[in-house]
Amino acid sequence: MTFVEMTKEEKEILIKNKNIGDEQFNHPFTWLMERIEKQSRNRNLGLTDEKYFETLTEEQLMQAWVHPETIKVVDE
Known about the structure:
Blueprint: E1 4-6, H1 8-18, H2 29-44, H3 58-66, E2 71-73
Parallel strand pairs: 1-2
């Protein structure tokens, strides 16, 4: 099994965003990717210092989204 390494805060963000909404509707993965892209644009414009998920590929994020049990929390 391949683990996806991320910080505790990144894991909390991913899980929280996945579980927003009622039990029968969770946000789709594309919604998370759009939020990450918006964060990146804002950072490039100097509007935020947030740097979440920068070291992860889209494939790693998808794996963590679909199989959160593969997330391995590491220090920053």
